[in-house]
Every structure is written in C-alpha cells, then in structure tokens.
C-alpha cells in the first residue's frame, strides 16, 4: 500500500478494510479526558455514597488497635491477629469504592472506541526515536490542542472552584459556630460535594475533546486515491489475475457441461450454429432441464458427444435459439416453451418405442409453437 506516500494527497475517507486493519493494530479513537472525567466523577460520587461506611471501617480499625487489654500486651500473636483484622476491615471498606473506580476506568475508553485488546501497540517502534519526528509531534496540531485543553482545564476548574466558594461562603463561615464533632462532619460533607462539582467541571473538557479525537482519528486514516486503488487490488485481486481466475472457472464450467451431455435425452440443433441438450424424466422431474448449450465450436462439440453416446438430436432452429437465449445451464426451461419442447420430447420418446418394435414410426414435428417474444433470429 502507498498509504505513507506523502506525495499523494489524503482526500478519501477510510475504507471499511482500512478501518478494520487500524482496529486490528489497536488504532481507535480514545479520549483521555473522557476517562479522567469518568474516574473523577465515579470516585467522588463513590465517596459520597460509601464514605460513611468507609469512615465506620476506619473507626473500627482505630478502635481495635488502640484498645489493647493486658492479656493482649503479653500475647506474641496478638499483633498479627490485629493486623489481619485491620486489613480485612480496610478491604471491606474500600472494595465498593475501588470497584466503582475500576469499572469507570474501563468504561471510559470503551465508551468511545469500543472494547479492543491488541498487543501490537506494545511492540517497540524505532521510528518514534527519530528526533525530527519527535520535534514534529511537539509542534503539531495535536500538541497545540493538548496545550489548549490543559489551559482550558485550569480555567474551568478555577472558575468552578470560585463559584463554589462563593455559593458555600455562608456554610463555610458557619462552621466556626458549630461544635467540633458537628463541624467536622459538616466540613467533610461540604468537601465531598465540592469535589463532585469540581470533577463534573471536567465534563466540559471531555465534550470538547471527544469530537476532536474522532476527527483526528479519521484524519489519520484518510487515504489517497492511489491507496484506495492499491487496496482494491489487494482485496479483490489484480485485473489480470481476476481474468485468469474467470477463465479457469469458465473452462471448468464448460468441462462439467460437456460431461453432462451423455445424460441428455435429446439435443436440439440450429443445425450448425446452435446446440442445446435437454433431459426429462417424467417420474422425477416436473419440467425439462437444460444440461448443455453452445454456439459454433461448442455446438459442434455437443453434437459430437451426442453422436458418440447415441443420443437423438433433431433440427429445430427457432427452438434451439429460443432455449439458448432464455435458459441458463441446469435450469428448467421457461413456461412459454413448454408446448414446443413437449412436442420434441414426445417425438423422441415415440421414436424410442418404435425402435424397440412397439408402435408406429412417429411423424417429425415440422411446426413448433414458440411465442413471438422468445424467437431469436
């Protein structure tokens, strides 16, 4: 593929094959801001809902470890049992919070680029060590956007923090008039909700970053017209190869067709340019079947095989041309030709009976009923 040829302008949208290949290589749109927002929001909201339970577990740990009776002081195993109990309490208190954060850390990337596991990005790429390319990346559009995002995050967070402090000013000043225990609880609640709102502020950055990442990913995958042509050659095959395959398929189909001629009941000829071979078994078939057809050399070959296997053939130019032009191989003849073909088959079957000494010699069908729209001259 010529996808890295800088002389070709990338103006074409990525083809499905290009998209599939990039996905196999681990190249999908990802937004770090979306992941950051999901983790921050889930973490702060998790603290709001599970913070009380976590505080209770921490109190239990402090209580267990600071209330030591006399027997425990002289028990060598007491420290290990207390340590194990403390770890267990901490685990029970943290597992709901960490579970939400882990789910958010997975859901953030999956929400944009979908689930993808690829080891190709883990392989070392020597071209990333090129200092010129490194400088190019430093001063690229993407680096500029990252700088703008960083500045934007600071501005948004500072602005939200300012408005939060303004809105919570009375509550924060009122903490001085509350008791110690009540003030601590109230300050924790205010801090948690402030963290939630500050985390929610990153949604604004994520909403800007997601369209940019999708656009940047599409831009990277754009192809030149030469890329598209090369891909078509790779996926569909080069024209000369396709032509050779079609020729081989045609030869195989013709060989199968000629091999089926000995099974025919009658061959209808033009008499020189057209030949069609029909088969009909009244017990197993509803309508006659076309086994072989051909013009000129193929028609001559069909007649030669028919003579070799002593298959009857008759001259009916209009019917031969009509069957040739309206019926495909191994297909039933159209309804419009039922009567004409029935006349021919009736003559052939009566002729066979006559040769066996049964019945009189049938009359050759001179006129056949062929619809005007099926006649070919």
Outline:
The chain is mainly alpha-helical. It has helices spanning 16-24, 32-66, 70-73, 78-113, 131-138, 141-167, 169-174, 180-200, 202-221, 225-236, 239-260, 297-308, 317-326, 338-355, and strands at residues 266-269, 274-279, 289-295, 313-315.
Considering DSSP H and I runs of 4 or more, what fraction of the residues is helical?
55-70%
SSE order:
HHHHHHHHHHHEEEHEHH
Unreliable spans are 1-6
Largest sheet: 4 strands, mixed
Instruction: Please state roughly what percent of the residues sit in beta strands, choosing from under 5%, 5-15%, 15-25%, 25-35%, 35-45% or over 45%.
Output: 5-15%
Rounded Rg? 42 Å
Q: Could you walk me through the main structural features you see in this protein, from its secondary elements to its overall organization?
A:
This protein has 377 residues and is mainly alpha-helical. Helix content is 64%, strand content 5%. The protein has 14 helices and 4 strands. The protein has helices at 16-24, 32-66, 70-73, 78-113, 131-138, 141-167, 169-174, 180-200, 202-221, 225-236, 239-260, 297-308, 317-326, 338-355; strands at 266-269, 274-279, 289-295, 313-315. α2 (32-66) crosses α9 (202-221). The longest helix is centred in the N-terminal third of the chain and has 36 residues, at 78-113. The chain is elongated.
Jot down its keywords.
disordered N terminus, mainly alpha, elongated, 4-stranded mixed sheet, 14 helices, 377 residues
Helix-strand layout with pairing:
Elements: H1 16-24, H2 32-66, H3 70-73, H4 78-113, H5 131-138, H6 141-167, H7 169-174, H8 180-200, H9 202-221, H10 225-236, H11 239-260, E1 266-269, E2 274-279, E3 289-295, H12 297-308, E4 313-315, H13 317-326, H14 338-355
Parallel strand pairs: 1-4
Antiparallel strand pairs: 1-2, 2-3
């Amino acid at each position: 593929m010529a996808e890295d040829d800088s002389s070709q302008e990338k103006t074409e949208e990525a083809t499905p094959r290009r998209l599939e290949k990039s996905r196999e290589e681990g190249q999908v749109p990802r937004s770090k801001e979306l992941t950051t927002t999901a983790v921050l929001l889930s973490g702060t909201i998790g603290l709001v809902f599970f913070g009380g339970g976590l505080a209770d577990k921490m109190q239990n740990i402090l209580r267990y470890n600071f209330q030591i009776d006399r027997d425990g002081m002289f028990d060598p195993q007491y420290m290990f049992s207390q340590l194990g109990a403390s770890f267990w309490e901490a685990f029970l208190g943290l597992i709901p919070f960490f579970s939400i954060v882990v789910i958010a850390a997975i859901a953030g990337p999956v929400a944009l680029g979908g689930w993808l596991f690829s080891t190709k990005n883990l392989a070392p790429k020597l071209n990333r060590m090129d200092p010129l390319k490194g400088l190019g990346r430093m001063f690229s559009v993407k680096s500029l956007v990252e700088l703008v995002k960083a500045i934007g995050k600071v501005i948004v967070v500072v602005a939200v923090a300012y408005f939060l402090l303004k809105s919570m000013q009375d509550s924060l000043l009122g903490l001085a008039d509350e008791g110690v225990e009540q003030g601590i609880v109230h300050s924790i609640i205010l801090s948690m909700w402030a963290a939630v709102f500050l985390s929610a502020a990153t949604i604004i950055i994520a909403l800007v970053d997601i369209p940019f990442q999708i656009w940047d990913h599409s831009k990277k995958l754009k192809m030149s017209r030469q890329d598209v042509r090369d891909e078509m050659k790779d996926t569909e095959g080069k024209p000369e190869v396709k032509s050779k395959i079609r020729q081989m398929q045609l030869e195989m189909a013709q060989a199968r067709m000629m091999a089926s001629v000995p099974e025919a009941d009658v061959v209808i000829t033009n008499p020189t340019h057209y030949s069609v071979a029909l088969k009909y078994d009244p017990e197993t078939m509803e309508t006659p079947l076309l086994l072989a057809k051909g013009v000129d050399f193929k028609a001559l070959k069909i007649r030669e095989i028919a003579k070799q296997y002593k298959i009857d053939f008759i001259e009916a130019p209009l019917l031969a041309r009509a069957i040739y032009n309206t019926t495909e191989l191994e297909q039933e003849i159209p309804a419009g030709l039922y009567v004409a073909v029935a006349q021919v088959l009736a003559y052939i079957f009566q002729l066979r009976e006559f040769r066996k000494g049964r019945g009189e010699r049938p009359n050759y069908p001179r006129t056949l009923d062929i619809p005007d729209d099926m006649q070919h001259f």
